[in-house]
Every structure is written in C-alpha cells, then in structure tokens.
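Escalated from tier 1: S-adenosylmethionine holo job.
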Amino acid sequence: MRRDVDQVLVDEVAAVVGDRREAVWIAEHAEVSGLGPQGAYELARRRAAGEPLQYVLGTWPFRTLELRVDRRALVPRPETEVVTGVALDELRHRHRPSRVAVDLGTGTGAIALSLAVEAGAGAGLEVWATDWSPEALALARENVAHLADLDPVAAARVHLAAGWWFDALPTGLLGRCDLVVANPPYVTEGEHACLDPVVREWEPRSALVAGPSTSGVDGLADVEEVLVGSIRWLAQGGAVVVELAPHQADAAAALAREAGLVDVRIEHDLAGRRRMVVAHR
Ligand SMILES: C[S@@+](CC[C@H](N)C(=O)[O-])C[C@H]1O[C@@H](n2cnc3c(N)ncnc32)[C@H](O)[C@@H]1O
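Tier 2 regenerated the structure:
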C-alpha cells in the first residue's frame, strides 16, 4: 500500500464498499486524479451500487497499457492478456518487412493497441481494430488518442474500422493478413442469465452473448465466423488466434479444420484452462 494514501479515507471508503483492497484502489485513484475525498466517496457509492470496480475507476491495466474503460465495452480480462501474448508470438514468427494484424471486435482496443506497442519495433506493422458497436469503437478511439500522447509511433500503426467481423476491413487486405486475433462473444443465452450481476447487468450483452454455430454448438456462432473468414483474409502461413471458453475448444478446433485451416492447436490461459484456438492458413 502506498504510504501517502490517507488511511482515514481508506477506512471510510472500505466501510462503503465492504472491501479494503478495493477501497485502497478507489482512494488512490481519487487522490491521483485530484478528485479529493468527496470524489472518493462518490466512486465508493457507485461501487457499492454494484458497478464494476474497473468502470468506477475509469481506467484499467492491460499488459503494458493503462486503458480507459466504461460501459461502452467489455472490461479487458487477464485471459485476454494471454491471448494477446500468443498472438504476439505468432506475429513475431512472420519475418516480413511489413506485416498486417487484425483485431476483430476490439472493444476498448486492448488487443490491437498491445500489438501496436509490443510487436511494432523494428519492422513495419499495420494493425486494424474493428468493432460492430459504434460505442465500443468510440472508446477504442479514445484509447488510441491516449496512446498517441505516450507512444505516437505505435498509435499511428492502428486503424479503426466499423463493421460486422471481416466486413469492416478494406478489401485490399484480402489474403494479406499475417494475424487475425479475436475475443468474440462466446457466452450462451443460458450462461448469460447465470453470470455474476456485476458482469450481467453492467457489461454490454452484445459483447458477451453468441448464438449457435451452423453445426448447432451454442455460443460458437461468432467464433465460427472468425475462423471461416480467416481462410480468405489470411496470407499463406498467417495465423488466427481466437479466445473461447474451455468447453468450446474441441468444437472450435473442428470448425477450424473444416474451414480448411491447418496446424490447429489449443492454447491455455495462466490457470491452465483451454482458452484459445490457434490455426494457420
Ligand atoms: C468479448 S468482447 C471483446 C472486446 C475486446 N477485444 C477484449 O478482448 O477486451 C467482443 C467484442 O466484439 C464486438 N462484436 C460483437 N459482435 C460483433 C460483430 N458481429 N462484428 C464485429 N464486432 C462484434 C463487441 O462489440 C465487443 O466489443
């Protein structure tokens, strides 16, 4: 704990939110942002009303970034940091003078901005970040603008585009992408109804819920669209990395093979859960 955080304030905030660790985050944030004690109490009241801590704070760390987060997009998760790491490894294996990476359904821009920052040095890189939601894309735009203040070269690599999965991309990228990465919706209607209220009632439903795949596996419709579309948009040898729920991994791997992708494998998150399918063209 930082010494200069007012412990009386932390105690008072903890009494409102019922969690001392969260109280420290809130008190620190209020202090760093110049909100003062009244601001801290207001944040505490929002948290006590059930709003996710990340939205209350308005920023949240993701790999090397500090991202703006709010109700317009899903809070970026730790498992997606691992997905991004796998995507970065795939991109680093592409020894080409200029590379193209695509983050479909970018939300806050978490994956795309991380690719631009972490894979950018030393080689040409163009990163396309798409979303169907105008609200999410507006938030991603704010995060690109924030990055531009810190790392203008990385921010300039990122192109935002609106639209339904691959439809958002310029056709000039057909068959030219080195990497397609996505964390698409993959929660079924039934699972959504059982989610913790802090997720179900605050995070965008359209970022979470997906219908059945063409073969009838519930929750896999968007994963399928991304895998099937990758065959047309990836360059030879390019990789697609898609996040999913552990119980969907085998069905998604089968979809990838049916789509004509090769070298299909399943990767794990830090807890050892089967968390993404990786495949190549
Ligand atoms: C699970 S969230 C992931 C957000 C972000 N990539 C992350 O990992 O934190 C899924 C995202 O996909 C977007 N999305 C949902 N359906 C889409 C579609 N058909 N085309 C493009 N984006 C879509 C949602 O708006 C949302 O931002």
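The mean pLDDT is 95.
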